[in-house]
Amino acid sequence: MQPTHPTRPAHSARPTTPAAPVALPEVLGTFDALWSPRIVTTVNDYDVRVAKVEGEHVWHVHEDTDEFFLVVEGELTIALREQDAERAVVLPRGSVFTVPRGTWHKPHAAPGTAILLLEPSGTSTTGDAHDPVPDHVDSTTGHTWQS
Q1: Residue 98 pairs with which residues in a beta bridge?
Q2: Quick check: 116 pLDDT over 70?
Q3: Alpha-carbon distance 105 to 79, whole Å?
Q4: Around 110, how many Cα atoms within 13 Å sit in the side-chain half-sphere?
Q5: How does 126-136 read in b/e, with b if 16+ C-beta sit within 10 Å?
Q6: How much is the average pLDDT of 80-94?
Q7: From start to end of the chain, where are the E strands?
Q8: Which of 87, 125, 127, 145 has the fewest CB neighbours in a 10 Å radius?
């Protein structure tokens, strides 16, 4: 039985841990959809997801979990609403940033950007609350990638 977080449902399409190294450029070459992450492996009860991203995502919040970003290619900007102010964090290639739980945020990416995310299995890409989701954003808990 897979462990679950007490406030999140079990992840229904949980991949097995790969028997060989996973080359992120190869995974990213298997799909074109933007803002539609692929789960490449799991670490304990966390998904390691990769996504191609471009343009704006949606303002959203994860009430019970932080969200970890690593920029694999390109540049990602994350707008944050903190207390009574907004600020933007710019992440060039190779940079990491963690959005703290309970922080409203909105990623925006330059063309050609790819990111790696680390989130508890079953976490929605649009959080626990969000603005209206545009058609180009996939509201999902991740799609299983198989080599």
Answers
A1: 68
A2: yes
A3: 5
A4: 11
A5: bbbebeeeeee
A6: 95
A7: 38-43, 46-56, 60-61, 67-73, 75-82, 85-92, 96-99, 104-120, 129-130, 143-144
A8: 87
Full-model pTM: 0.84
| 145, two tokens | 């990638």
Q: What is the pLDDT of residues 7-23, one digit of tens each?
A: 444 444 545 566 789 99
Q: What pLDDT sits at residue 12?
A: 44
Tokens 């009430």 locate to 63
Give DSSP secondary structure letters for 101-142. Answer: TT-EEEEEEEEEEEEEEEEETT--TT-SEESPPPTTS--SS-
Residue 78, number of CB atoms within 10 A of its CB:
20
* Of 88, 133, 31, nearest in space to 125 by CA: 133
Q: How far is CA 11 from CA 75, 95, 110, 129, 146, in A?
A: 30, 28, 30, 19, 16
119 burial type by CB count under 10 A (0-12 exposed, 13-18 middle, 19+ buried): buried
Length of the chain: 147
